[in-house]
Predict the structure.
Amino acid sequence: MTAAACDRCGACCRTFPILVSIGDARREPRIESEALRIEEWQRSQEWEFRLHPLPFNRGCPFLSGDDSCSVYDTRPSVCRAFEAGSPECAEARRRIGLQPLLSQRPREADARAPAASSTS
Ligand code: SF4
Ligand code: SF4
C-alpha cells in the first residue's frame, strides 16, 4: 500500500457512510450529541452511531468549514484507520470530482511503458 500525504480535501468525510462504536463515543463525547444512534437491530460492537449521512448534513458533523476534523485528537477508529493514498481515498476523491493524490497516479514513465516487457 502506498503511503501518501493527505492533502486534507475532506472527501472521505463526505462520501462514505461513517459508522462508529460506543468506544469511539466514550473517547469523544460530542459523538453522543451530534451523531445519530443507529436502529437497535442494526447495532453491533463496531456500529452504534452514524456520523454520515445525516439529514441535512453534507458530511460528517465534525468536518469544519476548512475541511479539517474538529475532533482530530479523539476521532473515531474508522477515521484513524483510513489511509491517504488508498483505493478508498482515490474513490472518495473521484466522487467529489478530484484527481487521486499524486502518489496514486501512475508515473508518466510507467504509463508509457509497454504492458509486458517481453519483446518479440
Ligand atoms: S470524525 Fe473527523 S476524520 Fe472522522 S469523518 Fe468526521 S471529520 Fe472526518
Ligand atoms: S480523501 Fe484522501 S486526501 Fe482527502 S482527506 Fe481523505 S485521506 Fe486525505
Strands lie at 18-20, 36-37, 49-52. Residues 116-120 have pLDDT under 50 and may be disordered.
